[in-house]
Amino acid sequence: MSNESSTAPDRDSGLRTIADEYRLFAGHQAKGHSPLYEELSLAVATDERLLALLRALPPIKRQPNLLLAVARHLGAPLDPHGFPSWVVTRWDRVSSLMLSRLTQTNESARCATLLPLLAALPQPLALIEVGASAGLCLYPDRYRYRYDHDDVWGAAGSPVTLPCRTTGPVPVPRRLPEVVRRAGVDLNPLDPSDPEDAGWLESLVWPEQTERLERLRGALEVARSEPAHVIRGDLNEAVSRLVAQAPEGSTPVVFHSAVLAYLSPEARLRFARTVRDLPCRWISNEAPGVLPGLLDLLPEPVPSDRAAFVLALDERPVAFTGPHGERLDWFAGAEPARSAG
Ligand SMILES: C[S@@+](CC[C@H](N)C(=O)[O-])C[C@H]1O[C@@H](n2cnc3c(N)ncnc32)[C@H](O)[C@@H]1O
User: Fold this and answer.
1) Same domain, yes or no, for 216 and 259?
2) What is the distance in A from the centroid of ligand 1 to the CA of 7?
3) Cβ of 18: how many Cβ atoms within 10 Å?
4) Which three-class secondary structure string do you get for 152-209?
5) Which helix (H) or strand (E) holds 48?
6) Helix or strand run (H / E) with residue 130
7) Residue 338 counted as domain residue
8) Residue of the CA atom closest to atom 10 of ligand 1
9) What atom in ligand 1 is closest to the CA of residue 106?
10) Which domain holds residue 270?
11) Biggest alpha carbon distance in the chain?
């Protein structure tokens, strides 16, 4: 996308670039996960009218995930023949929603990967999630868990059960963490009680992922019954204040997953410097290389056969995780909370 030239725009190569992005999405992301999205993005890649409309949007707003979620949100037919013309004829509505919405997928299942660290810290916890979206990861004590084929355990009566496959010596906890504060910050917090926001989060779930949709609905119910304090703002501006608000006697835990990639390298460094100096614990769960420095500390190579995040406590990597919380691959010798205190 960086081939956009302001001095000599080349229409054809611009369209080709967008078509390539949609083809890449079809072949690398949707394939094997969503046959429908695979077909729809291939259909977009060959529709010159739609590619030209997409080209008029800022590059960040042309992403396949955003177009597909917006079109579904507005009721587009999910067949590759009708989809492109449906979008083209309703472009005003589609483009205005693409401009106003962000892909803010909120995945409560990531709590299954955070739980071993959270449970090992001195209790009770004051949770501070930066880049919280609707805050659905702020309820690790309100969900139920199933690690591999073990029994389901966790919060009795919870509408959410999080399955997680593991390898390595995962310190699967025997108790839920005790949470005395749920706080967070997001550039655009989504309100679990707002039907528009909840509907948008549902549109971000890919069509065939019915289990994920069920989980999302359950997690929204949990969040509605016990609202978290999620403020609007930039994480770099807000994090110190949120840590300072942690109740006395609690362990403040700043955490984030699938967030720092949205920041510039400078903003990530600034965040790292700030959190390092705060009186808090720090759990990061981000794609490899997003937090500089962690790559050098990995005891194993980054998996090449699947997408993986790096889970770290206070900048010490402890595991690779599935990007949606579906697996946890613990490193030999990694202790959950070695530097507690
Ligand atoms: C992919 S979502 C992940 C949400 C949640 N952490 C989870 O794991 O489900 C990324 C979120 O980060 C937020 N975000 C991105 N940059 C941010 C910033 N500089 N300050 C605060 N929030 C930010 C976005 O608005 C979005 O809601």
Assistant:
1) yes
2) 34
3) 23
4) CEECCCCCCEEEEEEECCCCCCCCCCCEEEEEEEECCCCCCCCHHHHHHHHHCCCCCC
5) helix 48-55
6) strand 125-130
7) no
8) 259
9) 9
10) 108-330
11) 62
Output the CA 225–ligand 1 centroid distance in Å: 22
Cβ–Cβ under 8 Å, residues 297 and 316: yes
Give the model's confidence band at 244: pLDDT under 50 very low, under 70 low, under 90 confident, else very high.
very high
Q: Verify that 16 and 153 share a domain, yes or no.
A: no
22 near 68, Cβ under 8 Å?
Answer: no
With 0-12 CB in 10 A as exposed, 13-18 as middle and 19+ as buried, what is 25? buried
Distance CA 127, CA 280 (A): 10
Q: What digits encode the pLDDT tens for the residues 60-119? A: 899 999 999 999 999 999 999 999 999 999 999 999 999 999 999 999 999 999 999 999
Give the residue, by CA position, lying nearest to ligand 1 atom 2: 104
Regarding the beta carbon of 161 and ligand 1, being less than 6 Å apart is answered no
Asked if residue 131 has its Cβ within 6 Å of ligand 1, the reply is yes
Does residue 336 form part of some domain?
no
